[in-house]
């Protein structure tokens, strides 16, 4: 927990934050509406005696009272998919529509990509890309299990991604769920902070900046880009969006999500960020008893 | 792979890329490739899945006889990792649908669907073979299904032969429920 001390000045009720980070997280699943409606999924869980609690902000997210969420009929049928509650936030903020062209540029293992497809009624095109070939097999497995037929899977570095292979040359929306230092996953993975260093943060921030810039370039004017990470470090969050504001045509826009969160930062250490970064969301573990997440919504401008 | 089978007017399948299936056998340019018409007819003939179920989908081949169903946009040919889901194996004596296809589209089927009671459904999902003497339908590939939340829900593909239902649920998809 030592690395988290640096956030004492920015986190409200820091002791509650530390306590929450030390508590393990239960099983959460997302209902995959490609395979079954919310009502039918709940009925199937009831029928097999699996208890659940529905998230107030999103009826498709459930906290399951079982130690083996993968050994349920709903999981076998792809009605449900194990996905941390906050990890279901970025696709909701991106809000893709049926028929659109959407890019998930860091997609493996596919929880969010399949969530995007489900929100589009599996109509349109979701290009799910990942640079790691090993993780692509998990992405493919999940996509087929969840019955997503609108997904195209590519294996490339998002930073210099080419659309030449497709029949279209820009996306309507793009999700950048960037590789990060994963501080916010400490409740799920107690080893998350083992390799923590400021050097690691600064090197991953460089990659994040490259990916977000390419995402904005590949999205049409008026289109939407959502940038998210599961970490608290401002260098990987506000500073990356700030870099995008300085180098690409885009602006930070508001969004509504029925979860408690803190606004994005406008300063950190000696850095100052654009005021609009207050429109981003910092979701801390003690806010909603979840993992930690950062989400910013951008509109691509001329 | 016989050398004597090389065609004179058609190409060989390139297993590394996605090629959209020709509409009809007459439009075939690749030796041995199934057409969209044949694929849709197969699902209709075998499982009585109405052909219009697939109106918004395209069918593709990547790998020898591996057929994919896709709802998105794409040029043909295309060299990427995956589009949509694998749905059918052709280029063998009996075409074989995938378990993922059965789960996604099997609810439209009204033929060759065998309903399994609870214990049998679990054994099927776990990949076990089981005796099944009451089935008086066709031999060959069937859709195993069970009652779940008020509807019949497809579990996967089984092979029915000699009074035995063999689960074709792939290893990675099998579960002890």
From TrEMBL, chain A:
UniProt cross-references to SUPFAM superfamilies, sorted A to Z: S-adenosyl-L-methionine-dependent methyltransferases (SSF53335)
Keywords: Methyltransferase, RNA-binding, S-adenosyl-L-methionine, Transferase
Active site positions: 230 (nucleophile)
Binding site for S-adenosyl-L-methionine: 106-112, 130, 157, 177
Coiled coil: none
Any one GO BP annotation for this protein: tRNA methylation
PROSITE patterns: SAM_MT_RSMB_NOP
GO terms for MF: RNA binding; tRNA (cytidine-5-)-methyltransferase activity
Residue ranges of domain SAM-dependent MTase RsmB/NOP-type in the record: 17-301
Family: Belongs to the class I-like SAM-binding methyltransferase superfamily. RsmB/NOP family.
Annotated protein name in UniProt: NOL1/NOP2/sun family putative RNA methylase
Source organism of this protein record: Natronorubrum daqingense
Organism lineage: Archaea, Methanobacteriati, Methanobacteriota, Stenosarchaea group, Halobacteria
TrEMBL record, chain B:
Region Disordered, annotated ranges: 1-34
Keywords assigned: Methyltransferase, Transferase
Gene Ontology biological process terms, A to Z: methylation
Gene Ontology molecular-function annotations: methyltransferase activity
A matching Pfam family: DUF7122
Amino acid composition bias (Polar residues), ranges on this chain: 1-13
Stretches with biased composition (Basic and acidic residues): 14-34
Coiled coil: none
Domain DUF7122: 10-84
Protein name according to UniProt: RNA-binding PUA-like domain of methyltransferase RsmF
């Amino acid at each position: 927990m030592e690395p988290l001390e640096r956030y004492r000045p920015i986190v409200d009720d820091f002791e509650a934050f530390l306590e929450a980070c030390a508590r393990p997280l239960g099983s959460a699943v997302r209902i995959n509406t490609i395979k079954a409606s919310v009502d039918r999924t709940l009925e199937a869980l009831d029928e097999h005696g699996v208890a659940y609690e529905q998230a107030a902000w999103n009826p498709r997210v459930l906290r399951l009272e079982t130690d083996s969420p993968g050994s349920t009929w709903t999981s076998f049928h792809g009605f449900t998919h194990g996905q941390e509650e906050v990890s279901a936030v970025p696709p909701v903020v991106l809000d893709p529509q049926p028929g659109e062209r959407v890019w998930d540029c860091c997609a493996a293992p596919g929880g969010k990509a399949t969530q995007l497809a489900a929100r589009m009624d599996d109509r349109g095109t979701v290009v799910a890309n990942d640079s790691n070939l090993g993780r692509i097999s998990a992405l493919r497995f999940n996509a087929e299990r969840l019955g997503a037929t609108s997904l195209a899977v590519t294996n490339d570095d998002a930073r210099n991604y080419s659309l030449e292979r497709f029949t279209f040359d820009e996306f309507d929306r793009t999700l950048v769920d960037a590789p990060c230092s994963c501080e916010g996953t400490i409740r799920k993975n107690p080893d998350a902070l083992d390799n923590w260093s400021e050097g690691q943060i600064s090197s991953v921030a460089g990659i994040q900046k490259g990916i977000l810039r390419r995402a904005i370039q590949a999205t049409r004017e008026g289109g939407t880009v959502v940038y998210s990470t599961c970490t608290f470090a401002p260098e990987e969050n506000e500073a990356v969006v700030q870099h995008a504001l300085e180098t690409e045509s885009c602006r930070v826009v508001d969004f509504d999500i029925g979860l408690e969160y803190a606004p994005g930062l406008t300063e950190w250490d000696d850095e100052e960020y654009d005021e609009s970064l207050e429109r981003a969301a910092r979701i801390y573990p003690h806010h909603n008893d979840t993992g930690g997440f950062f989400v910013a919504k951008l509109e691509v401008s001329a | 792979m016989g050398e004597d089978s090389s065609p004179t007017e058609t190409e060989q399948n390139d297993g590394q890329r996605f090629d959209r299936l020709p509409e009809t056998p007459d439009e075939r340019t690749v030796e041995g490739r199934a057409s969209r018409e044949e694929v849709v007819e197969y699902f209709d003939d075998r499982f009585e899945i109405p052909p219009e179920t697939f109106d918004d989908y395209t069918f593709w081949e990547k790998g020898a006889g591996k057929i994919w169903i896709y709802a998105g946009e794409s040029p043909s040919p295309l060299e990427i990792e995956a589009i949509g889901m694998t749905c059918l194996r052709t280029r063998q004596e009996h075409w074989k649908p995938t378990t993922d296809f059965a789960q996604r589209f099997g609810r439209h089927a009204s033929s060759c669907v065998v309903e399994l009671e609870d214990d049998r459904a679990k054994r099927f999902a776990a990949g076990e073979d089981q005796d099944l003497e009451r089935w008086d339908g066709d031999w060959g590939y069937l859709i195993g299904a069970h009652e779940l939340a008020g509807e019949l829900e497809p579990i996967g593909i089984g092979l029915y032969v000699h009074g035995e239902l063999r689960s074709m649920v792939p290893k990675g998809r099998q579960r002890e429920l």
